[in-house]
Amino acid sequence: MIIDLRSDTVTKPTQGMLEAMMSAKVGDDVYKEDPTVNKLEERLADMFGKSKALFFPTGTMANQTALKLHTNPGDQVICDSNAHIYHYEGGGASFNSGISCKLLEGTRGMFTAAQVIEAINPPDFYHSPLTALVEVENTANRGGGSCWDFEELKKIRTVCNDHELGYHLDGARIWNALVAKPETARDYGQIFDTISVCLSKGLGCPVGSVLIGDEGIMQNALRIRKILGGGMRQVGYMAAAGLYALDHHMERLPEDHRKAKEIGQLLSGLEFINKVEPVETNIIIFELVDKKNDTKFLKLLSDKNIRLSSMGSGKLRIVTHLDYTDDMHDLFLNELQALKLK
Ligand SMILES: *Cc1c(COP(=O)(O)O)cnc(C)c1O
């Protein structure tokens, strides 16, 4: 048995999901004739209270499309220094949209409206890049699955209104925030112009992300997706997995959060652990007392068929998910407890 806690993307489709996929009605989605894709898009648009949604192969492509929709070459997007769009999208912001990122030093991947105001370049000062967009990530991945305070997100909305900036939410793990916090999908839909969501993280689908927004801003999304190579044909097989996941895998997310909290608690009590970031959802980020021991720590665990990931600068990451069973959880907690790191 391998206990893979590197990411919530390592899950395999469940039997029920596979059956839903196998019996999906499909068509050519490039002609917008795939009934299952259309159904998923309508469902998600409605869920977030927007008029349009578009299915994408990856969250990266959905985010990249959003950046393109909101900006012109030379513009600047304000985001956290830990943002996925900055760290993990291959430099796509500059490659695809010709824009730069203004990085804010937030707390656990989250910044404030005051920081945004300070980062906006005055539009008439033509020496600096034109600020066009604010991007936030909820939950924040490199922030340790942290959830934004909704009041702060609303304040940032006001700043965006005042300065005519677009407002994009990278909601790859918005599902985790939705179960951990009182706000609804519609609340998010009300304040953001565009929202990307991933079906392939906590929801356990093999493939799929969706970009959501109103008609106006989404007008060019289809064209940009085509340019990026994301127009797919009978992709309803994948959309069917998404519909199945919304029906069956949302409600089990608190289980991932509970397991993550238990792991976090146990780690905090171990003598070779220096610091565990607050655990709010399904991600645990922690540091060893002696960072030089990272490789050894990961090796000791991998000898026991347990996999975690390193995030660099001495930070280690654990992510709980659908395929991390109760048995694996018990075993992992026991192995951690017994671990001798000298
Ligand atoms: C996973 C992830 C994405 C999208 O990643 P893909 O692997 O391209 O689907 C975007 N943002 C965040 C925060 C993520 O964790």
From TrEMBL:
Q: GO CC terms on record?
A: cytosol
Outline the extent of the Aromatic amino acid beta-eliminating lyase/threonine aldolase domain. 4-287
Cofactor(s) named in the record: pyridoxal 5'-phosphate
Q: Which domain of life is it from?
A: Bacteria
Question: Per UniProt, which keywords does this protein have?
Answer: Aminotransferase, Lyase, Pyridoxal phosphate, Transferase
**PTM annotation (N6-(pyridoxal phosphate)lysine): residues:** 201
* Record-level GO BP terms: glycine biosynthetic process; L-threonine catabolic process
**What NCBIfam families would the database entry show?**
GntG_guanitoxin (NF041359)
Protein family: Belongs to the threonine aldolase family.
Q: What is the protein name stated in its UniProt record? A: Aminotransferase class I/II-fold pyridoxal phosphate-dependent enzyme
